[in-house]
Design brief:
heterodimer, A: alpha+beta, 60s Ribosomal Protein L30, Chain: A, Alpha-Beta Plaits, 2 domains, 6-stranded mixed sheet, 6 helices, about 35% strand, B: mainly alpha, 13 helices
């Protein structure tokens, strides 16, 4: 059964129209992608799937994704001019309709090139009412809704590593809300998705990154977090 | 915790309170925000609603799809010329509903209530009645709290999404929420509020979601206008003491079953109904080739 955790889920969200799934949700997906790229965006290619591809123009979906990539909230009135703002910031953004072979009709794959040359690939779907789920980041199968601070690790599967990571978080008084451990099939690599209630300091993320057997760490902020564009 | 209309009536009667008070108390419990903080948030909602419901009464501009526009201006002109068929209060409400719909379709800031597609109904109902009856901003905020409790029950037991339940779930829920708000704003009891909500849902039970070209423009904006009128007449009936033959919870359950049985062509896919007419298809092709 569905839950309603706040009356503002019913009377809300306050958002730029016209569609909570095609506009507000699209903006949130853009924002999660921004965090996956550590807010460093040199250029972007966005692949739109299903209804995002078919009716995206009439719903401002492209503008909304661009707005999210710039760090805007779904209620930011500058969302309408986001493509222009991208242009002013010399960030190239390009859209293409593509069958991403996923089941959800409102899906986008956002490929970001950072100024450092690294590439981030974020795939996510808009589920309606403004809520979203990111299902893949750089090949990691994830389930990120943007409600929590999220740490995603990629590491060599080894005994004690999970304990060591959670110990680091405990030492910093970071409370873990949810945690999931995934091991690649037949591979030695594994991944942890840790959602926390509190913000995690950069130094703590760095500490985890520097651990032996750690390959990479991605840190995603919750999308409620306001930031200056 | 209330999860049904029955719960609402039982708790409100036990505590001798209105629905808006129940909604507020439970929000405090669930979110740990103070009463003051919640009322501040709802005031913010009211502010956004007021702006969207007035933005296209005087001025006009193109929507994203360019299918709708100018409806508020036309209705206002007719009303100002003293020619209103339905009376000023109905006209004023429709004008506001059209304005919010156009605002939404033009990438304006709105409050989904309960969805973006049906966002014109609750503001038009609550703000028009507050203005016409000289009710304070606080009374309007209480109305929004009342409507949120009704929306919560429908969300828990059915759906408010057009893609899941058709327009009956979107504009029907919005009208049900709005009518309950109007009943409490005008001094009616919780029972009366639920009767109004049940009648609103029944009035458009089975209505499909069939947006031309998949855009939130036509027939959506006119359904927002008729939705607020639905809310007002339902409230009128309830305040007069007319009861819903079938209680609210059973109506919600029926609405869910109708939505479940609805062919997917009629659930926001832009294939059936108005979207599938020759004109609907032509508009879609024009937008595509634009």
């Amino acid at each position: 059964m569905k839950e309603v955790n706040s009356i503002f889920d019913v009377i809300g969200p306050i958002m730029i129209g016209p569609s909570s799934s095609h506009t507000a949700g699209a903006a949130r997906l853009g924002k999660i992608a921004r965090y996956a790229a550590q807010k460093d965006i040199a250029s972007v290619k966005v692949y739109l799937h299903g209804s995002f591809a078919e009716t995206g123009d009439g719903h401002g979906t492209k503008k909304a994704i661009a707005a999210g990539l710039l760090g805007m909230e779904p209620y930011d009135e500058r969302l309408r001019n986001s493509l222009q703002i991208m242009d002013e910031k010399n960030i190239d953004i390009d859209f293409e309709n593509k069958d991403l072979e996923v089941s959800h009709p409102n899906t986008a794959m956002i490929v970001i090139k950072r100024s450092t040359g690294e590439t981030d690939r974020v795939t996510g779907s808009s589920l309606g009412g403004g809520s979203v789920i990111v299902t893949n980041i750089n090949g990691f199968e994830v389930e990120i809704t943007g409600d929590y601070y999220t740490i995603i690790t990629k590491h060599i599967d080894a005994k004690g590593l999970i304990r060591d990571v959670t110990n680091i978080l405990a030492e910093e008084s970071v409370n873990i809300a949810n945690m999931k451990v995934i091991r690649g099939y037949g591979k030695k690599e594994a991944s942890m998705i840790i959602e926390t209630d509190e913000t995690v300091e950069v130094e703590v993320i760095d500490k985890i990154k520097k651990m032996e057997k750690m390959i990479d760490v991605i840190y995603i902020l919750p999308i409620k977090e306001n930031e200056d564009v | 915790m209330y999860r049904s209309g029955k719960d609402i009536i039982r708790i409100c009667n036990e505590r001798n309170i209105s629905i808006w008070r129940l909604a507020l108390d439970e929000e405090i419990e669930l979110t740990h925000l103070s009463e003051k903080e919640i009322l501040k948030k709802m005031n913010e909602v009211l502010k956004v609603m007021k702006k969207s419901s007035e933005s296209f009464i005087e001025s006009d501009s193109k929507t994203l799809g360019g299918i709708i526009g100018g409806e508020s201006i036309k209705l206002k002109k007719r009303m100002d010329n003293g020619k209103s068929l339905c009376g000023d209060i109905i006209n004023k409400a429709m004008i506001k509903a059209f304005s919010t719909s156009q605002h939404n379709a033009s990438m304006g800031k709105i409050c989904a209530a309960p969805t973006a597609g049906s966002s014109g109904i609750i503001p038009a109902a609550v703000i028009t009645v507050a203005e016409e009856y000289n009710l304070s901003k606080n009374e309007a905020v209480k109305g929004l709290l009342t409507s949120s409790a009704i929306g919560k029950i429908i969300t828990l037991n059915a759906t408010v999404a057009g893609a899941e339940g058709g327009c009956q779930a979107e504009c029907g829920s919005a009208a049900a929420m709005a009518s309950a708000a109007l009943v409490e704003m005008l001094g009616g009891s919780p029972e009366m509020a639920l009767n109004a909500a049940a009648v609103s849902l029944k009035n458009i039970m089975g209505l499909i979601c069939d947006p031309i070209a998949g855009l939130v423009e036509a027939p959506c904006s006119k359904r927002n206008a008729s939705g607020v009128v639905n809310a007002m007449i339902s409230a009128e009936m309830a305040l007069a003491g007319i009861e819903s033959v079938v209680p609210f919870d059973e109506v919600v359950e029926a609405m869910k079953r109708v939505g479940d049985d609805m062919n997917s062509d009629f659930k926001e896919t832009a294939r059936g109904g108005i979207a599938g007419t020759p004109t609907g298809i032509r508009i879609k092709e024009n937008i595509k080739n634009h």
